[in-house]
Amino acid sequence: MSPPDTAPPAPPPPADHAADAVWGADVMAAARDRMHHEHGGMRLHQILFNLAEVQVRRGREGYRWDGEGWWGGDINRVVAKSEGEAQFGRSVDTAEVQLLYSRAIGPYYDLQAGIRQDLGAGVRRTYVSVGVEGLAPYWFETEGTLFVSDKGDVLARAEAWYDQRITQRLVLQPRVELNLAAQDVPEQRIGQGLSTAELGLRLRYEIRREFAPYLGISWDRKVGRTADYARRDADARGGAAAVFGVRGWF
For residue range 1-26, what is the model confidence (pLDDT) as tens digits? Predict the structure, then answer.
């Protein structure tokens, strides 16, 4: 027999609950609310430092951090991010903090918006921050963010990294970061276009999933007009560094 042209409509979902007759409707309603809360409605939190390391490079040893924390559910979250670096024995060169509202826009990506504040030495700016963060195909972690300062400066940042699991505990993480500017920002020694680029390769050993020491190499470079500013200031334009640190979360 040939199938019918149109399938019959699905039956309506049951409006009654058999357990109500045994335990009572009020008791079972509270139990169902609790089950819904524990299967997707919970408020959770995490603090993660993807980078917390010492950098060794030809007499310019220093340290660096890059981490974030969040609180919320599967759809809506409050996110705080921070990153920066400095040389030992000197004040912090560059640092920033961000406070963001994060909203899931799909199974793998979140839309984030909020405020970024620059800290450390030099001119400090406050920015409006808008970006996306999530998991790209083939398990690449990605971030893309646009910043607009209180002076009208427009900056952008793109980051990506990938955890290649060699064994159940040994993980190789390549990482790339690009920073761009829509215009020259002389006060911050930033030039128009691609301003800095960084490539890194880190090998970590997960003693526990939450605690993993690592070592590796990082290469960064100021390019374009940003490199011109560094040259005029007799400042380093980048180079390679051996790194070792700890990746951790709780």
Answer: 666 667 788 888 777 888 888 998 89
